[in-house]
Amino acid sequence: MIIGRLTGEVAALGLDHVLIDVNGVGYVCMSGTRLLSRVHAGEKVTVHVETRVTENSITLFGFGTDEERSWFVRLQDVHGVAGKAAMAILDALTPAELMDAIALGDANVLTRAKGVGKKLAERIVGELAGKAPPMGRFGRFDAASAAGMASAPVAATTGPRGEAISALVNLGYSQSDAARAVAAAAKTAGDEVGGLVKAALKELAK
Length: 206
Hints:
The chain is an alpha+beta fold. It is built from ten helices and five strands. The longest helix has 15 residues, at about 175-190.
């Protein structure tokens, strides 16, 4: 059984995990400080889960949004990045900051993450540069399936920036050029899709 999402009450918090009570069953989700800082014992939460199954164990990794979960998976496509390093990166950077760092080739930003050195940061930027943002689970499900879960805080791509990049790609720009332009535009244009696209087009025209 693969668990993709849990909604229940926070029963306990640990240094690197949260225990969620779902109808009397307690699920332990390994979590980073970003999620742990948002939740409190006794409150009801929805956690997006990546389930990892090995020969000896089943581990649940919990995230506040499906966007964070999808980046957790994408980061591990890079050779040398395991779950611990991916979680550390998502503790240090928001998905938007991570996408900007990759688009702009700024490996130094990734070294803010605990345990991520310059070589690994450069490998991450190099291997992920030019790739489309990761799709959340709703990007793979049909609209009817997603409709019943619409109350969950989910970003199918990476929010306004992902939408802006997609719009530019549809206009004929390459994925890498679109990502760089949107990353540069976001510094002044904010996070509204229309504004990002207009500012990014100006960047591309330079």
